[in-house]
Amino acid sequence: MNKRLLLLALLPLLANADTVVSPATLALHQRLLVLDSHLDTPLTLTRPGWNILERHDYRQDGSQVDLPRMREGGLDGGFFAVYTPQGPRTEEGRAYASAYGLATLTRIRDVIDRNPDSFALALTADDARRIAAEGKRVVFISMENADPLSSDPALLNTYYRQGLRMLGLVHFMNNDLADSATALPEWKGLSPKGRDLVQRANRLGILLDVSHASDAVFDQMLALSSAPIIASHSSSRAVNPHPRNLDDARVRQLAAKGGVIQVNAYSDYLIPLTPKPERNKAMAALGARFHNLAALSPEQIKDLYQERDTINQRFAQPKADLDVFMQHLLHLLEVAGPDHVGIGADWDGGGGVSGLEDVSQLPVVTQRLLDAGYNEQQVANIWSGNLLRVLQEAQARAQP
């Protein structure tokens, strides 16, 4: 199917509530380099029998990214995250985290190597542009939760040699490196080991990511880093006062030092939620039962999502929609300016709102941005230009 026929075929799919993507916008979106800074798709890559080359349905298996939907939504690629669930901070726990992280890294590299006509590893901004021009999908590698490095921070060099270009130190819980935004302070920011890791990343030219980090970690990393930093999937605390979001003052500080905030589509962070301890307890029990996602069979995956849906129905919480996502995005664009904002929707990691459920629907965001008055160059920067610039600046300040 040629590109014109593809665009015509997609048009009926892209009516979204009161947002209709025009043919001109769809053509523009498909022409732009569109990258997402936080893809948790490696979580689905580990599922037995799951094939990224085939089209899936998020309503059936929860997945939101695969090659057919990337093509439909004009997603050229992004940062595939080596995510490691935070485990016990013991010798055994650190050993498990180290093995888990390397296994995830290997799986990402394996998908690239098995599908050289469809995917290619990117190490630089120029790589991303070249790969997309070749019609392939761009795979950068990032890390979410640096617990795999707790036992030996020098492992960062190994990850770097294998393609790691972005590093986030912490996730939902504190670790040996830093305090989380969603846990009680332990280190009052970065630990000594965390400070060392920041400096190691700077020397290698690895882009530092403050998403999930506490305010104190943000402040210390911004002051300590010799290069601009990124919040790869964070939203606005002014719009919704969740500790995972950034306040306007810090967004301005991030931009003033050349950094970028990439807006997520994780509903729990976008709108206020009513505390429901019983729901949290049920979800924790479900997570404990299905902890090792990589070992689940297709039947177990189906059971997991069915039970999750049952819990969500029993303890219903409101879900954010496209309007709310755009409220966060447009507010941050106003605060930081269009040269310091991008999109990291947290696909396959809990992201997705009503009206923007998977990557096939991304053109609606371009339409909304154009409708809000942003021009083609600004939209191009939001989709990839700002992300690639901050990566390039981190690499330019490396000290090999």
UniProtKB/TrEMBL annotation:
SUPFAM superfamilies noted in UniProt? Metallo-dependent hydrolases (SSF51556)
Signal peptide extent: 1-17
For whether the record's keyword set contains Transmembrane helix, the answer is: no
One GO MF annotation is: metallodipeptidase activity
Pfam families (UniProt xref): Peptidase_M19 (PF01244)
Q: Name one GO biological process term.
A: proteolysis
Superkingdom of this protein's organism: Bacteria
Q: Which keywords accompany this UniProt record?
A: Signal
Entry-linked InterPro entries: Metal_Hydrolase, Pept_M19
Listed name of the protein:
Membrane dipeptidase
